[in-house]
């Protein structure tokens, strides 16, 4: 429920609503965007990143919070991991989100003995929380070529082209694969996909399952993983990748999240699918991410000798809930804007095209609040209005209820009816654009028998990801990782799994005189005592 | 300044700010959660919770990440409830009512108490979707259960031992796989990709200079 003060402030948006619906703001030119991003996007905030001092990315800038994890001691430092492995697998999948589940499905289908470990439960992942949809160029006015151009330009011409090509080419097949598993995409009565725009798309290619798109995909994948008899070991985090004497991946050191017991898994191939970074709260931002998004995979892979690509670029989703406190930072799906809602400032003025790419919209909101003084102040901070009542006015009554029921419900629980009142939003930490450097077969560059897929990887999206390309990424590359690892496991040979590389890494830390006083990976954030 | 309220986690009293969710209040009180916390956004069902307001006769249910604390709330979390998930091959299932009869026969033991519906934190009409499942109307079951987060509270309240979320999951998969109309344009595009129809154009694109690509992006036409 809004305070009396905010109700009065919301009236400014309501007063201009009719007029604003008709008004269109031109999209920015490339120069305007670059200027805006340089001045206001958090990635450009130079004093919030630090230079990596050891390892493959020595000399590169990364967010300070990630820097600390990369330069900390291992959780298994000094622990005896020499005992007989408790788990033995042909394909060991680390992570129970969309990429991990898709990988496990394909590995199991290929006949590999597959074990999936996850530090919370299977499905506790950002995939579950993806609301808006999944991109695929499958309509007659569209093509993978267009999809490529949209994503490549939207990612600031930085994507690894061969990875992006794979993403767009295999997108229609990914939708088909999901449909065959029983995912219920929104369709018309004759089977046509109901699609919308996302920020920066040139064709309406966003496929959705209402605004539970990720949840619908994730619960279906989870069900299939269980149907296929994959061994799922939950509440078990991976602390380190284990390597053999030749530097090949040979397993992982695991930690029981409930008892703290450290044990090992031996595996012919290992897939890292541990997801993102949001719970590190970079630059003090709130996050839309799930509880376990603490960059574990980046840390493990880095110590094992992987290279990170674009680790300095994070995605701040423009529309995180800025009010009330109990949903602060939660995602307000981009689909709200796809359906016509516009962003307006304290004076009720539209200040940005609602479907610019995410980095641009975020920077525009920050500028509105920080420079122009046209944000709406609350006791929690500042925000702008996302004028949700426009949706039913434009598309007809009942649209909100039918197309974005999760949003309606989330705000209803706070006493706000988004069909009648606008919502306050401010950027929230949403996605890690970069990550582990991989090849199109998902193999981790430079480490044999090691694969990675999903948000933990980098290069697919360049320096900014478009809406709907991460659900797509976890399916396309998750499946590929499973297929590649299963195939490799038929011939892969390795020596005894060991943590010697951890000792070497820690010696390097010592030599460089670094002591953060912390251990990593983080596993979970610590919110104890927080108000 | 927010006010504080008294809440009881597993019977023990804590004083917490009144504007926190149950989950945030547990953390404020010092709990470092491993169980009972997942997406923190109302989608994953990890934080199923039951509570009673002191003096009230009724038991209430909610998701801890989506519900604010109230004074005199007696709270217990339900981080796990043993649901029965049947294993099946989706490709080998039909869509007649025998599917449910075979995999989840206990749904026919429903006594119509409606405790499932009353306990659903998503306000779904759970008993009704089970009724549709009994009749083999999987499309309706899927539709009514779509917003299910599989928290399992319904099953914890069911005297017949039904695993409602699993029944609904099966119905949705049957609906998505067999009952929803097939998508013609998807089929056509997949075939085009498999025939390599975009290959040449994409290869050419990959060879273009940065300047050419920038031009293509900045001047692309955008569907209204």
What would your notes on this structure say?
The complex is a heterodimer of chains A (about 525) and B (about 220). Chain A is α/β, with parallel strands linked by helices and about 525 residues long. Chain A has 18 helices and 22 strands. Chain A has helices at about 5-15, 15-20, 30-40, 65-70, 100-110, 125-130, 145-155, 160-170, 170-180, 215-225, 295-305, 335-340, 360-370, 390-395, 400-405, 405-410, 470-490, 500-510; strands spanning about 50, 60-65, 75, 85-95, 115, 135, 195, 205, 230-235, 235-245, 250-255, 260-270, 310, 315-320, 345, 375-380, 380-385, 425-430, 435, 450, 455-460, 520. The mean pLDDT of chain A is about 95. The mean pLDDT of chain B is about 95. Chain B has helices spanning about 20-30, 100-105, 115-120, 125-135, 140-145, 155, 165-180, 185-195, 200-205, 210-220; strands at about 5-10, 10-15, 50-55, 60-65, 75. Chain B has two domains: about 5-75, Ubiquitin-like (UB roll), CATH 3.10.20; about 90-180, Alpha-helical ferredoxin (Fumarate Reductase Iron-sulfur Protein, Chain B, domain 2, Orthogonal Bundle), CATH 1.10.1060. With about 220 residues, chain B is an alpha+beta fold. Helix content of chain B is about 40%, strand content about 10%. In chain B, strand 3 (about 50-55) and strand 4 (about 60-65) form a beta hairpin. Chain B has a five-stranded mixed beta sheet with strand order 2-1-5-3-4, covered by helices on one side. In chain B, about 40% of the residues are buried. At the A-B interface, helix 7, helix 8, helix 9, helix 10 and helix 16 of A face helix 1, helix 7, helix 8, helix 9 and helix 10 of B.
